[in-house]
Amino acid sequence: MMKKIEAIIKPFKLEDVKEALEEVEISGMTVSEVKGYGRQQGHTELYRGAEYVVDFIPKIKIELAVAEDMVDDVVNKIIESAKTGKIGDGKIFVSPLERVVRIRTSEENIEAI
C-alpha cells in the first residue's frame, strides 16, 4: 500500500521541512505556492494609509507519495520541522494512493516512488 501526504505549511518553513524529510530518506516531493485560510480567517493590513483585508494567506503545499510503513515517520518529521506553535502552522492530509507510474520506465507503485 502507498499513501499520498499533502502538507500545507508556512512558506518560511519549507527549507526546514525539506531537510527533515531528507533525514528519513525522502528524496522527491512536489512543492506549490498556494493561498488559503483556516482559523486565521485572513487579516487586515495597512498600505499607504488604507486598511484592507487579506482573505487568503500565502502558504506552501508539499505533496509526497510514500510507502504505508513510512507515513508516521514522514508526518512526525513534518510536524517537528514546520511547527511554530502559532495559529496558521498548517495541516497534513494523508490519503490512500491506488497507483503510481513512472512515465520514463513504466515502473509502477513502490518501484515508481
Mean pLDDT: 90
Rounded to an integer in angstroms, the radius of gyration calculated over CA atoms is: 17 Å
Q: Class by helix and strand content?
A: alpha+beta
Strand order of the largest sheet: 2-5-1-6
Tell me the span between the first and last alpha carbons: 12 Å
Q: What low-confidence regions span 5 or more consecutive residues with pLDDT below 50?
A: none
How many strands?
A: 6
Order of helices and strands: EHEEEEHE
Summarize the biggest pleated sheet.
4 strands, antiparallel
Strand content: 35-45%
Helix proportion range: 10-25%
Contiguous helical run count: 2
Shape type:
elongated
Provide a brief overview of the structure:
The protein is of the alpha+beta class. The chain is built from 2 helices and 6 strands, in the order E-H-E-E-E-E-H-E.
Task: Explain how this protein is built.
The strands form 2 sheets. A 4-stranded antiparallel β-sheet has the order 2-5-1-6, with helices on one face. With 113 residues, the chain is an alpha+beta fold. Helix content is 19%, strand content 39%.
Tell me the layout of helices and strands.
Layout: E1 2-9, H1 14-23, E2 30-36, E3 43-47, E4 50-54, E5 57-67, H2 71-82, E6 90-97
Antiparallel strand pairs: 1-5, 1-6, 2-5, 3-4
Helix pairs in contact: 1-2
Characteristic key phrases:
two-stranded antiparallel ribbon, elongated, 19% helix, alpha+beta, 4-stranded antiparallel β-sheet, 113 residues, 2 helices
